[in-house]
Design brief:
Helices cover about 80% and strands about 0% of the residues. The chain has twelve helices and no strands. It is globular. It starts with a helix and ends with a helix. About 45% of the residues are buried. Keywords: Membrane, Transmembrane, Transmembrane helix, Transport. It holds the Pfam family ABC-3.
Amino acid sequence: MWSFPFMVNAFRAGAVVAVVSAVMGYFVVLRRQTFAAHTLSTVAFPGASGAVLFGFSAVYGYFAVCVAAAVVIAALGWRRGGGGADESALTGTVQAFLLAAGFLFITLYKGLLGGPQTILFGTFLGITTSQVNVLLGVGAVVLAVLVLIGRPLLFASIDPQAAAGRGVPVRALSVAFLVLLGAATAEVSQITGTLLVFALMVVPAATAQTMTGRPSTGIALSVVLALAATWLGLTTAYYRPYPLGFFVTTYAFAGYLLARSGRALHSRLGRTGMPQLRKGATA
């Protein structure tokens, strides 16, 4: 497997994507903005297919449309906790139209590798060194900005009212985070596909927050889980003729189930032991 340059590039790209998505995903779950991540992943599909149709690389379509959509969402006032029913209906309508537009672009361009499957469910074929460099550059910028705003962003994510009262620019942080989320979503889409961005953007972070409430430990654990899911998915997809996104999602979801099961078992054992401790204390 390691004798093929495209597999080496796939593991490099997967590592970059896993780290960026895990760190961003921790804040996505903490801020309850999974719906925003879903919206951005949806618009990535027509962005990539449209770029290919008009003679550009799909990479540029991913980034251009995802970041533009993030700016639009921020301009419309999308906030933590979601908007009203009218906003949700409008967003859902736009998502449906853009998804249909993406399928139209793919139909018009008949030479697209693998048809819609490549963009929707991801692939490790054809990842070049230049693509890895682009992902690395964008990922470095996203993480650098996140480090700069990380502490106030964490405060604003946990208690936005208290943060605003202390003078934290909550609104500006929300806009900056959405733009970073757009760039991160564009990165993740190139590995998992646009429909399975949650595999790396949400599931490892949700698993980590199930296991620990400490932000630093949770972020580190989220990165480890995302790397494991990505590399295991790439290895399995090399030997099996099925979409990469399916394997990445399966491994990430299995980790989440194990974490939830372990937490439930721990809670049950704790409740079972309490009566015995009380009885011993009474005796």
